[in-house]
Hints:
The chain has 326 residues and is of the alpha+beta class. It has helices at residues 12-15, 17-22, 61-82, 86-105, 120-127, 140-147, 214-225, 229-232, 263-277, and strands at 2-3, 31-32, 35-36, 48-49, 55-56, 109-113, 153-161, 165-172, 177-181, 184-188, 194-197, 208-210, 235-241, 245-250, 255-257, 284-288, 296-299, 323-325.
Amino acid sequence: MQSLGPTKGRGKARGSSSVLLARGIAAPTRSFGGMTLPRLGRARSGPKRLPGGAALDRGSGAWRLIVLVSIASAAGYGLWVSGKSELLYGEAKGAVERLAVVAGFGVKQITVEGQQHITDAELATALAAGPGTMMLGFDTDAAKARLEQVSWVKRAQVMRLLPSTLQVVIEERVPFAVWQSLGQTYVVDAEGAVIAPAVREAYVGLPLVVGDGAGKNAAGLLETLEPFDALTQQLTAAVRVGDRRWTLKLASGVDIMLPDDGVPGALKTLIGLDRDRGLLGRNIAAVDLRLADRVSVRLRDGGPVASPPGGPGAAEVPTASTKGNI
């Protein structure tokens, strides 16, 4: 777990408010509007005794809670007497929050778990919590919603740990594929959610999918291709056509045009033809698997048809057509 709160003994430069806040970290302070407020301390006469003999330490959480409740009660009574005017309500609310912070119920530390790609600045902006934020008045649901608007964040949880710690747990999106659309390139997760703009070279280990709807359908395609390892090893990109079917682009330059439905069966036919007749090793530009009753190939312009392994010599390219049936 990563702690974004101040830690004792790390030096002034690392623990200063300006440096910590610059990293999205809430640091404690006692100054409001130029006035330095006193710290709460223990009474010199020792712990106060409650009825029944129980000791009350004025530096404890119980003492702080009693102070906060007293402040809130007094403010509430004042509002009731004044008729709850909007102006007085705002002033009283601000005063209560400032005094609650002085009493120890302000955000002093933020702990974060699961942070990999989201920056401290994005985290701080989404949380909107700092040294002047009152813990009891902090809306954790709103902070959670803001965090989940950050592109890297899939799910978030924000919890208050009284008196002064916010605990944040983040589940980040996992890069799954690189999606190219309208000349722009993005990294997307398995659900097709856009995580961030991407340079292809930065994600060479991820498959490249192109076209409208390619990002959200990439996971389904790769699941279908999983049993055909020999084919996927040659795959350089998958192009989504009309947001209904795929064309696979192989490193050899061959395009494999898949049908709308029945893709596994079409791929089994292709692998069988390649095994028996060396189809993908021939000098062809494309293999059309869109029709269920036949497989068509488009020859490269002006090039010979390569013979299958162990077969006869190279045949001549048809001159009247660039298509042939197998």
